[in-house]
Amino acid sequence: MTRNRRSNSAALLVGAALVVTGSALGAEGLLAQVTAPPPPLEERPIEFPDFRDVTLDNGLRVVILPYGTQPVFSANLYLPGGGALDPADRTGMASMTASVLTRGTETRSAEEISAAIEGVGGSLSASAGQDFVTVSASALVDHMDVALDLLQDVVMSATFPEDEVELTRRQTLSGLQAQLGQPQAVAQRRFNAVVYGDDHPYGRAPTPATVEAITRDELVAFRDDVMHAGGALLLIAGQVDPDAMEGRVRELFGGWEGRDRELPTFVAPPERDEAVIYFVHRPGSVQSVFGVGHLGVTPDHPDYFALTVMNRVLGGGADARLFQILREERGWTYGAFSQITRPADIGVIRAITEVRTDVSDSTFVELLHQFDRLREEPVPAEELDGARNFLAGSFPLRLETAGQVAGQLAQSLLLGLPLEDVTRFPDRIRAVTAEDVQRAAQAHVHPDRAAIIVVGDAADVLEQLEGRAPIRFFDVRGEPLTREQVVGSGEPVVWEVDRLREGSRRYDLYLQDNPLGAAEYTLTRDGDEWVSTAVIQSPAGSQETELRFSAVDFSPISLSQDMAQGIQANLTVEDGRVVGQMSLPAQMGGDREVDEALAPGVFLPGMEELALAVADLEEGAAFTLRYLDVMQGGQRAVEARVTGREEIQVPVGTFDTWRVELSGGDVPLVLYLHAEAPHVLIRQEFVGQPIRLDLTGMDQP
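^ thats the sequence. predicted structure below, dont judge the formating
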C-alpha cells in the first residue's frame, strides 16, 4: 500500500598518547510564596497580519508578509522533497546538496559569497530536512538587494566545485562518526529505523557507505530535480513594501524554470502488534538512554490539538509528568520529555530520557505506566488548565518578530493546513477537554505496541530488562547483534602477546596541519614482563608513563604516570585488585587511595592500543576494550571496529593500514593501524576536530 501525499508545502588517546531569612510566615508559608506561580497575564488577541500571496507563471508561489518594527527582512525558499527523495543507497544526498549549494556559483567563489553576505551583516544558508530543502537569506532592509541577489545566484547558478563536494563529504563523514559517541543520536536513529522501517524514507539515515557512494554528478542531478520553481514557496517577511518586493521577485525569479514537481511516495510503515525492546549495546555507557513510542498522526488529523495538550501534560516541559516524576521525585535523570512530530507524512509520539544505569528497569516500568495513565485516567482539572494555559498563553510570544510569524505561516502553507491552525491556535487549544485528551490517548497511544529503544552497556543494564519484553540487539551503527555477541562468552579474550616487538615510535601532533606537540613510545622486554613507556609534550603540558604487563598472558602489572597539573598515579595489581595512590588537584577530588577489584580482561590505561596491536584484524572485526578509569575510579569501555583498509601516508612513509573506529569514549577516534602484526599505530584522528597524530619515526632492534 502506498500514499502519495503532496506537501504543498582530546580525550583518551589510545596508548596514553595524551592520556590526555527568617519570617513570621514560617517555612511553609515562605516556600509557598517562593514556589507559587505568578497569576497569568491578560490574554493578548492574535492579530495575524495581512500578506500578499501570488503564484508566478513558472509555478513559484510567493508570499510577502509586511511585518515587524525592526528594519530587517528574511527570505526563505522552500522546495518540497528534501531527504524523503534520497535514494535508499544514497541517503544523505539532499543534505549534501544543500551544503554545497552556497559554496560556489558561475559568478562567485565560496569565499566571495561569504564576503558579500557578511559584508552587509546578513546571512545565507541552505539546509535539507525530511520534507523540504530550504535556502534562506536575511539582512537589514537597506541591504536586501544584496541578500536577494545572492539567494537567486546560489539557487539558479550553483556550480558544485569538486573540492567543495569532497570537503562536504569529509565533514559529513566526520559528523556521522561523531554521532556514534552521542547516545541520544544513536537512540534517535534506531527509533526511526524501527518505527518507520527500511522502506519508508523517514526510517533511513546516512551511513558512511551511502555518503561515500554519492558523486558530484549525482548531487548536480538531484539539484536539477529539486531546485526549480514548480510547487516551490518563497516567503519574504519584514519591513518590506509588497509592491516593490513583488516586482523585485519577478525580476529575479520570473525566468526560473518551472515544471511538475516529483514528490516522495510514502509507503505505509510496518504495523506493530507488541512492545519490543531494541537494545543498542554501547560499551562504556554510564547512563541508559530510553526512547519509547510509536507512530502518531498525519499533520491534518483532527486530533492534533488534543494530542498537543496531551503531550504537554505528559512531557512537554519541566512541569510535566515525566520531568516531575523521573527527575524531581525520583532523581533518576536530569530531564525527561515527550514530543509529537508533524512532518509531511505520519509523525510519531515518543518519550525520551537518560537515566542512571541502575534504575533502567524502573525507568522502563515508569515510562509505560505514564503512557497507560493517559489512556486510563482523565487528566485532572488543574493539570489540564496548566497545559492549556501554557500552550495558549505562550503562543503569542512565537509571533513577535517577522521571522517567527513567517515560520508559523510557512508550516501551514507547506503542509496544506488551514491558516486558522495558526490564527485560532489558542482557541483550539482552550477548547480541548479532559475527555478529548483521554479519547485521543486511547485512539493513538499504545504502550502495548511501543518501540522501546535502550542505549546502554549490556554488562550493566541487560539483566534488568530481560523478561520484561522481547529484546533485539544492535550495535551503535545499527548492525544486528546476537545476545552472545553482546554479553560474550564470559571468558576473557586471549591476546596474542607474542606478536609484540621491542622498539620505539615517535609521533607529531597536528592542529590543522600545524605541529602542536610530540610523543615518543618505547616497548622493551624485562624478563616475563613487557615495559611500555611514553613521553608526551603538548600545549596541555608534559606527561610521562610507565606501564608494565605480563609477557605471558597480557595481564596488567603496574602503572606509573606523571602528568600536568600535578596529577600522578602509582598503581599496582595484586591478587586481582588495583592498589596504590592517585594525586589529583583539589578540583578533581584531591589525593585518594586506590583499592578496587580488577575483573579479568580489564586493562590498565594504555593497554588498549597494545591489545589492538596483537589482535586478529579483518574487515568488520569488533572488540570491546575495558579499562580502569584511574581518574574517577570504576571501569569504562570503548568499542573498536575495523571499518576498512586504507593506504596512509605519514612523514615516515606510506603504510597499508586497517581503519579502526573507536566509540564509547569521551571523544570518538579513528585509528590507522599497520596491516601486518604487530599493528603499530600509524595515524590517529579525533572525529569532528582538525587534530591528528602522525607517525614520524620508528626504530626496531
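The domain at 276-478 is CATH 3.30.830.10 (Cytochrome Bc1 Complex; Chain A, domain 1).
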